[in-house]
Request: fold
Amino acid sequence: MRKNVLFLLFSLAMCNSAFAQKYTQVWQKGKATTTELGEMTYSNAGQKVTVAGSEYATAEVDSITFCENMPAPRVISVSFSAGSVDVQCPDEYKDSISISVSGADAVIKNTKTGGEEFTINMKGESASGSLVYEGYYKCTFVLDGLNLTSSSKTNAPIEILCGKRVEMKLADGTVNSLTDAMNADIKAALYCKGHLELTGSGTLNITANSKHGISSKEYLQLKRSAGTINILKAANDAIHVGQYFQMNGGTINIDKNTAGDGIQAEFMYLDDDVTLDPEKEDNGKIFIKGGKINALIASQDCKAIKADGDIAISGGEITINANGNGSRGIQTDLNMEISEVDANVPTLITIVAAGARCTLDECSNDPHRCMGIKLDGNLTVTGGVTKVTNTGSKSRGIKVGGKYTKTGGVVEATITQ
Reply:
């Protein structure tokens, strides 16, 4: 009851103040969410307070504070140079941060379960460096002109062992590069245990000599502000996610030196590896709502875009050359929908299926064809322009295992049901 009264008083104070403060901070478990000053209302029935358009359960809020200026960011600075790395942490946060350095390999740990979010700014160049981060809370990485090659057989250039939301910003105007070692026991050149969100208009070049280019255990999102991701080489998939992939903007270029799939979204299972995890929303799905994808698939039996779940394309420009024998431009075991929800973000899909039948030993019982699009489920088209050209020997345009429904848009392809 006391908390409800306090929130009501805060609300009244907010409404009747002279608005001298500029920012509001909502504190939960020692962590503050900072927003510009705005309307604050309290709902006694819902036991919720709304601050600048965001709702918070009163039982989960420790306090609300106001300040004149935006609080200084909690930034850990990581600077690489040849065979060394310098890590600088603000003194007031050292009680919750553990830092260890060996040569140009750094390990940063958020050691307090009641700690706070941090930003890690990475820059510089090293031919034998890496960063491993372990934490309990959401965090932000800023790549600010980073050229990092790992020589370790056990460390990726960047490995983020945090199961929460991880934002990675490519600083505007910068070119950043990550390269892993040959035959390293790692998951990807850039690996995130949690939810990876890419922002910032810079460029990221990935050379993955051992496995995937970019991999997230859960979802991966490219925000509208995302820049350019160049997968120059991948020993396995260029981009591999364990929950879902969503692209709202940015550009992804996948080079022919990718030995696996271009973009793959897998189902997340429970411990028995049979039962789908019911808590993982949009499990195994791919959503493309904007941006550009350019993929050149030269390896046999590989797909440019592959999902265990449904695929929904509602905007963006996709250009695929499926040149490998038995390769596929887009493939899912379930359903696919092509639409166009915003005329300012048109849907344009262009696929050339130039490969022949698969000749790998594992394809001997099923020497399948190269195809532009292959779906085991239904294909629904309500908008956009889709063009599939099959030029390879015995190649096919679009194969639909279920029902094909078209109520809008343009489809230029040979379609087999």
Remarks:
- The two ends are 63 Å apart (CA to CA).
- Residues 56 and 374 are 44 Å apart (CA to CA).
